[in-house]
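Consider the following assembly input.
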Amino acid sequence: VTTSAEHLVIGSGAGGALTAALLAEAGRDVLVLEEGPWVEQGAVAPFSLEQMVRQYRHGGVSATLGRPPIAYVEGRCAGGSTEVNAGLYHLASEETLARWRASHRVADLSGEELARHAASVEQALSVQPLPGPAPPASLALERGARALGLPVLEVPRWYSYDGGRPVKQSMTRTYLPRALAAGARVQCDVRAQRLVFDGQRAAGALTADGLVTAGHVWLCAGAIGTAALLRRSGIRGAVGATLQTHPTVKLVARFPEPMAAADDVPVHQVKPPGGVLSFGGSASRPGQVALALAEDWACNRWVAEHWPEMAVYYAAIRPQGKGRVITARGLRDPVVSFALTRQDMDRLAEGLAQLARLLFAAGALAVYPSVRGGGEVTRAEDVDRIASRVTRAGAAVMTVHLFSTVPMGEDPRRCPVDSFGAVRGVRGLRVNDASLLPDAPGVNPQGTVMAIAARNVTRFLTDGRADRA
Amino acid sequence: LSAAALPALELRRRLRGQAFLAAFTADLIELELDGLDAAARRDATDWVLDRIEGGTDLARIGFGAIATCLSVAVRACAGRRYESLPRERRLQVARKLLASRLPGIGELVRGTRALAISHAFEERFPQ
């Protein structure tokens, strides 16, 4: 079976949904291929096991090769990770953009330029602060940070609050309906196996159902999926060689009062000076509390029953180490590796200890670091022993942020794509997702990914040469 | 499935360490999770095995390889397959594995335990 479209968008997450909507609204013929199913936002309880099974890639069971392995999760459904994440909105700082311009020679990426595109994204997603008080687990972070004199902020989210009911404005509620309304076609449960070419020009993709031909192909399958698809299609070089993440280690805090943490995630984040560490709160349903306690289950199993008074927090870093995405014959999935440096491990250890101090300052009765043999710590004076447990063998490291496998920029040695996502050496092929970020932004990346994607599509639509390129 | 195909499937299952993994997961749940009846333990075991089977190629192959090695090692030491050992002997072996910090075994135990515990708590305290 052969299907054709003027523009083929592979992936329907933050980058793909926005790309499809803007192209379709500009009158282009657009077909979106999404590997996962369409699940209406709200049809599945957020952060539940059912969500893991239905909307996460590999049911949420994926980890990088390396010591320590890093567990990671990605959305695999219409809307991608926007359907399953916490909905916290940041934009890369001016300092981060300056670093990207210097390190990768990214052109035309000023704070002003990014903010211009971010404004339309923020409006489309109803980005706003919580209308009422933050959840107790979030207020505890704020209280602890203020007690220790650390910078803390309440992060806005892409939620609407019509009638007081919070509804996440993920891609299935925003850009995908816009794309459909403008005439785009969205095909779910279809996996692009590899790209096809006509000489030096991308000509479409091969799926299990047949061939999809297109004049322009936009890769938006996420940092791992996009890199894997390029590599499977014979485009290798630096593709996949510079995977970046925000590695995190977790800790459970027990308070004297109920935290209602199962209902929502904290919106406060703490950003200690230096730009490397950050602290925040995670989903804390009973299963997640127990999961975070599981590293020292022999000690912690007795307190897990107290999950209503507990909340899960994380310490995250901007790492020095990097990872790789490679594909191998005979394997359906790419092999993902990540090597944390010694300094990364030290920073995770320092971060976890500092987070524990903060939570004691907020009134925690005890903390339970998610490291092997972490045990129960009941006094702020004892938190130093937490740091010594954060070892390559003992730390349970995880991440929900993956990027930088196809970094953009004008440095051809480091950047497989130009400053606007066009793949070097292949006409009609563009990357427009988290893969483009030159390195870890140090904040939740979706806002930045969407603003950059909007910038790239706008550039394509306004550049008369782009359609022919 | 034809009758002739069944032995081949069973052999493949054994080679992938699935019989060992199923028995070990059930024992881990019995030893580490209190208050679960037999049906809940079976549910949790099935859920863990489904998640491993649905994981990345790397996770599935990794878990399978470690489980196969352990299965062979137990058979060499105990003279019988893990899953056919007497109950007390089997739990004794399981306790040793749960306490192990050896790379590979440690990862298998951590992964299996994490999946089992999160499932059990979500089922026990539905939100």
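The mean pLDDT of chain B is 87. Ask yourself how this observation constrains the way the partners meet.
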